[in-house]
Design brief:
Blueprint lengths: L3 E4 L5 H9 L4 H4 L6 H11 L4 E8 L2 E11 L3 H4 L1 E10 L8 H15 L2 E6 L6 H9 L14
Parallel strand pairs: 4-5
Antiparallel strand pairs: 1-2, 2-3, 3-4
Length: 149
């Protein structure tokens, strides 16, 4: 499958939201029928030079997405890090290597930005995703915590 990765544009938002909603976790928290809050969030992300909302496209159709955030820090001698979030592949393209190519593309972008490391979190229930990230070389080195407010 031939896939091109690029920055998302406003017209991609409905397809991105549909992918976010298309799993057991997203189905309980996303509202694809009400795109307005997502469009607002997109405008904020799009206006921030340390954010990349990315889509993978094939034959004019959005098939994958992730958000890549560049974070400055004092640790690691003032190193930048890249945070990968919200990795999704459309159900019709799963198993075709699109997710792997997307994550590898994001890692390449982190290298371009001179990041010292790439990090991500994955819900503990996503055991298939954990195997996927480990296969790509990610190590489950930390325990993450979240607080809903």
């Amino acid at each position: 499958m031939d896939v091109t990765f690029r920055l998302a544009v406003t017209s991609d938002v409905p397809a991105i939201v549909a992918m976010l909603a298309d799993d057991q976790l997203g189905a309980t928290r996303e509202t694809p029928q009400d795109v307005e809050p997502y469009e607002h969030a997109f405008s904020v992300i799009d206006g921030d030079p340390n954010q990349m909302l990315v889509v993978g496209e094939s034959a004019g159709r959005v098939l994958a997405t992730l958000q890549l955030t560049f974070l400055p820090g004092l640790s690691h001698r003032g190193a930048w890090r890249a945070q990968i979030e919200a990795v999704r592949v459309d159900a019709s393209a799963r198993g075709e290597g699109v997710g792997e190519r997307l994550v590898r593309w994001a890692i390449g972008q982190a290298r371009v930005r001179d990041c010292a490391l790439v990090q991500l979190t994955s819900n503990t229930s996503r055991t298939d995703a954990h195997r996927f990230y480990e296969r790509l070389g990610f190590v489950a080195s930390h325990t993450g915590f979240k607080l809903a407010i």
